[in-house]
Amino acid sequence: MSGNAFGNRLTVTLFGESHGAAIGCVIDGLAPGLSFDWDEVRREMKRRAPGQNSMSTPRKEADAFEIVSGYFDDHTTGTPLTAIIRNTNQHSRDYGEMKYKMRPGHADYSGYIKYGGFGDYRGGGHFSGRITAPLVFAGALARQVLRKEGITIGSHILSIGSVKDRPFSPMGETKEVLEGLTHEVLPVLEKDRADVMKKEILSAAGEKDSVGGIIECMAVGIPSGWGDPFFDSVESVLSHLLFSVPAVKGVAFGDGFAMAGARGSEMNDAMRMKDGHVTTTSNHNGGILGGITNGMPIRFTAAIKPTASIGKEQQTVNMSTMTNTSISVGGRHDPCIVPRAVPVIEAVMALGLLMIQEDDSVYGK
Amino acid sequence: MSGNAFGNRLTVTLFGESHGAAIGCVIDGLAPGLSFDWDEVRREMKRRAPGQNSMSTPRKEADAFEIVSGYFDDHTTGTPLTAIIRNTNQHSRDYGEMKYKMRPGHADYSGYIKYGGFGDYRGGGHFSGRITAPLVFAGALARQVLRKEGITIGSHILSIGSVKDRPFSPMGETKEVLEGLTHEVLPVLEKDRADVMKKEILSAAGEKDSVGGIIECMAVGIPSGWGDPFFDSVESVLSHLLFSVPAVKGVAFGDGFAMAGARGSEMNDAMRMKDGHVTTTSNHNGGILGGITNGMPIRFTAAIKPTASIGKEQQTVNMSTMTNTSISVGGRHDPCIVPRAVPVIEAVMALGLLMIQEDDSVYGK
Amino acid sequence: MSGNAFGNRLTVTLFGESHGAAIGCVIDGLAPGLSFDWDEVRREMKRRAPGQNSMSTPRKEADAFEIVSGYFDDHTTGTPLTAIIRNTNQHSRDYGEMKYKMRPGHADYSGYIKYGGFGDYRGGGHFSGRITAPLVFAGALARQVLRKEGITIGSHILSIGSVKDRPFSPMGETKEVLEGLTHEVLPVLEKDRADVMKKEILSAAGEKDSVGGIIECMAVGIPSGWGDPFFDSVESVLSHLLFSVPAVKGVAFGDGFAMAGARGSEMNDAMRMKDGHVTTTSNHNGGILGGITNGMPIRFTAAIKPTASIGKEQQTVNMSTMTNTSISVGGRHDPCIVPRAVPVIEAVMALGLLMIQEDDSVYGK
Amino acid sequence: MSGNAFGNRLTVTLFGESHGAAIGCVIDGLAPGLSFDWDEVRREMKRRAPGQNSMSTPRKEADAFEIVSGYFDDHTTGTPLTAIIRNTNQHSRDYGEMKYKMRPGHADYSGYIKYGGFGDYRGGGHFSGRITAPLVFAGALARQVLRKEGITIGSHILSIGSVKDRPFSPMGETKEVLEGLTHEVLPVLEKDRADVMKKEILSAAGEKDSVGGIIECMAVGIPSGWGDPFFDSVESVLSHLLFSVPAVKGVAFGDGFAMAGARGSEMNDAMRMKDGHVTTTSNHNGGILGGITNGMPIRFTAAIKPTASIGKEQQTVNMSTMTNTSISVGGRHDPCIVPRAVPVIEAVMALGLLMIQEDDSVYGK
Q1: Which A residues 14-53 touch C at CB under 8 Å?
Q2: Whether the predicted model's global pTM rises above the 0.90 cut
């Protein structure tokens, strides 16, 4: 499949550039007869949208979407649902310098080589984090479908730089806690950490620098038996989507890297009967065994690298002259992308889970 | 695509169960006219094969493969290359108890639900680590193809339990170092760590327990411009394959989770001209920016959880009676799967890279 | 893959409904740096557009497209190229009756069942022939790419009802003849047949009826070695696309069904050296052997059924009352869709060939 | 996807060469818990197997299959089912001449170009009709699955050369008639035609020539609502598979090419209520409208070209010397492949229908 579409029975195709006419997505495979709460979709979009507060780029984009197909008489038709988001706040200034001056930490150079210099270099073009807006749109729909099946998704910022929040309870947070987190700009479990994190971000901003962080995401209410061994393992599908999100450099399920330092007797989740159902007494494996859900909450962490765009001067090259130069990335950028990445990570979790359910080769037969 | 095939132009399809007649794979999309060093393939298979030493399960499997199609007159034909590996050392003992007694930490329960109790439960069936043998076979072919293009892959054990090796130099190890590591049972960079790791493994074994570890893998010689933004990012494709490998619970590229704690000015890899070519002066990003290679070494870590099969008694359930019970997993198993996982991780790296090259939508035009 | 996308490395995703906001397509996998003649694309669109003459529906649609992504500085960027075509001439009349009254010969009933009554029933919704507009758009781009490689595509109407044109010369028509045909409303080789065909169409129209026909399409300049045996045979890929076009009910390559009545000695194309190259002295096989091109012109015929929408009264059912009723399809429709199907068939030929070239597992290595 | 696998949730991967060690297939996506009648599978295999009578090649191949994975305790496991068929009757004679002498009408030349001369040329290699044996195996399983859902598939020879049988009744033949046809070597509806067809075949054989024919295939019992508009239309999926079968050069659904000569009022299938269900009073469209089943019998014809291997001397080229030469194809071949193609066509119909059901994006939700 081409690199901008993902999924089998349920497919999402992304398109657009940061400074082109529009960005958007085609979602194919949604069941007919679904009705969406568009206000909630707009709220999700707004969580990701730029210009919301002092920690984010001042670029203002309403991220208003237009549904041009697949939704009729307040229901999905079963045919492709397409959403278009117009780019409205492109700066008209000359981007010519950016064509050849490669921003360190960005896809400028790798993309330049891949596309032979023909890529749209304005604002990162198709590599822009802006292309995650249609991803959030698609995820917002998936989230609503999953919620009707009793599945709730939420996440919090586990760390910004060296500032840490406490981790999710592996056995699962309540739906109220998870949903509640979606209303916070800096969602944390220990509420006083939000201010410390904000200080960390503004401190980096003050130094014309940026800072990274870790997002922890959880889904509760997933039935057992979703997913496949090997190439369609739940971890494979979710990590595939997660690493599609710009700036994600690490993904770990359950206790993740900590499992590597532990004993089997510590990491095996013992099983017990409870009210006639099978459950486990711990959840080190994050709800997935052999690539297949076991009915426990799914839990993963995603490492977000610090924003590559920084005001500090950096060494780089000019591809036109093939000489050394330096760059100080001006313009509008986020000193920390983590808060805006939270809804993207949740979107990807929702989309991935719905795809796994739809694509599952056996479930529901 | 179904869960047991992966790739677009270059596809690998896995099949088989631990105690069935045979396991194997079909590799479709190999260029015609390739000639393989089968002794090297056998060496790779042996690295993964059980029964090699005191740290591994005593189950003896020669893992001898038969090529039944796609190779003729000592060259690939361009049509599907199929390898069959007969299972020869299945125990004839009664596996009936395993049908209903779920081993904690294994796919027994999640697979039981998914397949409605029809899965082959003997030795883990299709979930067995044994199915990685054809993956190593396929990876061994991919490695040889890549080597001819100047690409070298190697890995070492970064940690077993709490015992650590030093990490790879991010700017790249030499081909000699990388190739040399493939000849070690416990490949490490600081040679004295091997014995300490071995002790850690045998100590866990002595306690009827198991221990996990982290593998670090590197590829040098990759040209810039491979991969795609978003869903076919190099990270997405490699992580998809890595999380297909049983027991992998975490994957991180470049500095991975450490990037989340750092500043942009620390993590952006500055660019410089060197002998007329563009290079970077550091490689925190692991050779991948915007999902596309930038010509620097690719580097990732994979967290391997401790073997789920342990002799210690554990709480579990019986799916036939739906009652609580306990289990002490007898039979043959590895106290630490990490050493045998090393060639699997390398195989997946090689396969992923060759798939990325083959599937690439633009490169080479 | 979902039903509205096709291709591997080069993918086309269609979306839209006849009376929705817009229709369009996302084309992913186009090489970067391609420059298109947009006037030619518009000409191709106009060939398919309705309301051009007395043989077509009077619905006027300019079919003006907007490129919203993937094209920058007069070149493809290498990332998804998306085109949006606004629907402008939807009638505002009440379509409520069409929701339940099934038009015979249309997808009304099969679609009603599939989508549980949630499909957009206005003007056929997503089943409308109108959705072939973005297909023609995509094909027009493919045609330009292929032309630069020396490949020319053309077609003519082999028959309308009982009126026949002479078939293409199997050994190939000239590029001039093939290109010339694209400028005709009723493209035929024996020029006097056009008028007779027109009379046949107007005669059907006069009887509130419709008439079908056969389109013959040819591509010259295809190198040998494209395609694959079995599931990616050139015939498989092209027929897959051809049967995606509404109203196509038969597809035959080379001498097609006539081959079934002949002897091997008559149908085998003898081979000869010519100017140092291999050629065949006849082309009964339509340029494809074993699913792979042999360098001779590709040639197929596609049978187009008569337009299902007719003014004549027909028996049908009402899905709301589940009772018998009758229908006389009013409104705007084509008495013969064949002339407007010609550019669609050519578009599909062009797209299919470019996909085969891009997806080919071996060619060009 | 690579050229030797087809399907999404249900996938079949083919492998093998005519004179290699073995041929076979991997079927992934079969539901767990299915039990097969292996004797019936063997009967299906025997219908296709060579050496059954005077009309077929005398090459004897038992086509005995070994199931090496995916079937346990007399049920499918839900994981890949793999079958291996050993080649046992390869002639040991020197095939060296065939390496360079291209047989007209075969894939020798197109395959030579594609695979750069590395293909296995013995007996046609991977292009051999022999590779349809695993296709028949897979189809035999699909047929049994479909039968349990009330779907019956059958076919007859509509013509051999100029000898014709009467066509199927478009409104459907009985299950008894369809099943009965599967027991005939030359399945026809007008029983006396079998002898005339046999004479036609032996007459061609007597002239060292071959003859083609048309197979008509029908499936009854298909529910309405299967399939998709556009790229996953039932016609697209079935034609894709049909044109994968060597020697198929034309495919037509319902009245096919005859529809092109008719009026809409003749071809639209009127709809009526019958016992509370919707039905049509005719079935010119072959059970498919808008790419989706309407509950009527599916019906298509497939044109099979005359066997390319003939004893008559033919002009050809030598790829080693690049000179003209002649060839008289000796060895074992069928004067008419149509009778042996019948079970292959049915297999493909069964597989295609099961794939459509499995892959369907909406049905059954």
Answers
A1: 14-17, 20-24, 26, 28-29, 32-33
A2: yes
